[in-house]
Design a protein that fits this description.
Blueprint (H helix, E strand, L loop, with lengths): L7 E10 L13 E9 L2 E5 L2 E4 L5 E4 L5 E5 L3 E11 L2 H4 L7 H4 L8 E2 L1 H6 L2 H12 L7 H18 L7 E2 L1 H11 L8 H7 L4 H12 L3 H18 L4 H7 L5 H12 L6
Antiparallel strand pairs: 1-7, 2-5, 2-7, 3-4, 3-6, 4-9, 5-8
Helix pairs in contact: 4-5, 9-10
């Protein structure tokens, strides 16, 4: 059964993490992600927040959130990941279940702790989805139903979570400031002045909490916005300018540097 044809994918993975293994910040522009953490010594980094991970913690990530898993030491890293297409909810008449992905502040309430995951049987249902997909005669009917149940329970569990996170409130505010002003002129000087912080200190702590330089973060978020605009029917040229790039040439260079090819493929 090719689960991608159903509007979602599921994958079980296990890696031996070496001392120098890096998982880079990224996002999934075309889907939402659900990650069941099963084993490892790691934290989940997302938009300036850091969640210490325990076995059976469940992570939810929107298509617009930059994130990665940071490993504190060499260890076995085991997880299960479900990626749900953006149109899955409309296709199956469950738009309200998108709330857990879209009605959150960036980097907040991403983690449903293990005790709640167990209470709501989230890990059991995720395992069932994978098992149901192995029944090729069912054509994904049971797996799709189980995923809808999982989304329902995720939304119920999300309202009861109090998972502690590590963050820098100033960096969180800077991230929100940037994301609310992507179409405006943003510069290191302006942001440092707005938040009464030296440019050197801003650069250091921003990289520490996000894994990106300030300028690289702004560029990446603008490119994400460009792709959303194009998906809604805006031309590449107009989308680049609307997203805050000073010219099509600057947009093209940033796109090619980031994705390895021009915006038209």
């Amino acid at each position: 059964m090719n689960d991608k044809n159903l509007g979602f994918t599921i994958k079980r993975s296990c890696d031996e993490i070496a001392e120098n293994k890096m998982f880079y910040l990224h996002n999934h522009p075309d889907c939402y992600e659900i990650l069941l953490f099963q084993k490892g010594n790691a934290e989940f980094w997302v938009e300036g927040s850091k969640y210490p991970l325990n076995p059976e913690d469940t992570i939810v990530v929107s298509n617009f959130e930059m994130h990665r898993v940071h490993h504190n030491s060499p260890s076995e890293y085991r997880r299960m990941v479900i990626n749900v297409d953006l149109n899955f909810f409309t296709r199956h008449g469950c738009e309200q279940y998108k709330n857990i992905f879209i009605n959150r502040t960036l980097g907040e309430n991403n983690c449903i702790p293990a005790e709640l995951s167990r209470k709501y049987c989230l890990s059991d249902i995720m395992r069932k989805i994978g098992d149901y997909l192995n029944d090729e005669e069912d054509n994904g009917v049971a797996a799709t139903a189980a995923l809808i149940e999982l989304l329902y329970l995720l939304n119920r569990a999300a309202g009861k979570t109090n998972k502690q996170i590590k963050n820098n409130e100033q960096i969180k505010n800077i991230i929100l400031y940037i994301n609310n002003r992507l179409t405006e002129q943003l510069s290191l000087d302006k942001i440092a002045e707005t938040f009464f912080i030296s440019k050197g200190h801003l650069c250091r702590i921003f990289k520490e909490y996000t894994g990106y330089t300030l300028n690289r973060y702004i560029t990446y978020k603008r490119l994400m916005y460009v792709r959303e605009l194009v998906a809604s029917g805006v031309s590449w040229t107009d989308a680049g300018l609307e997203a805050g790039f000073s010219s099509y040439s600057n947009f093209y260079k940033a796109y090619r540097r980031t994705y390895g090819h021009g915006p038209r493929g």
